[in-house]
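Bit of a strange request maybe. I'm writing a small parser for structure token strings and I need a real example to test against, not something I typed by hand. Could someone generate the tokens for this chain?
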Amino acid sequence: MAVKKNVIAMPARPSAAAAKMSERKWGREAMDVRGFCLFPSLLLHAQARLRMTPTHLALVLHLADHWWDATRKPWPSKAKLAKRVGLSPRQVQRQMAELESMGLVKRNPRASALRGKLSNEYDLSGLVARLKELAIEFKAADEEVKRKQHAVARPGFRQRLPADDEE
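Reply from user aminoacidic:
Good idea to test on real output. This should exercise your parser:
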């Protein structure tokens, strides 16, 4: 059977071990219906630092759900995103404009000679770059916490209390 040029090959399913781990957490039924989406936990931990509202985060997560291959940017329609997050297409457009002004998402118009204007392609490289920057800070903070915990656990450590100047 010949492969059609207009068909996008789906990525391979995750390893059996990863699939089984996810099934144990979420249940086979939930995993079988729509699969799962990978994204870094740092995105959740850095949401406030990125100044992302809950709506921004929801939209980025839905974009990530459409981003199956690192070499192909996601292109869900505004209508599809709107339906998924319970907004109007115009509200999605405004939220995407905010994400774009924050430098996290870039909207690239797509068009076809036959069908005219298509849904935007969404470039998340700005978000990826910001997460890489923040990863350095988060890692340094984690290492500092570990260093302090290690120091407290050593024999002979004693908490130094502030000098009592009032006596």
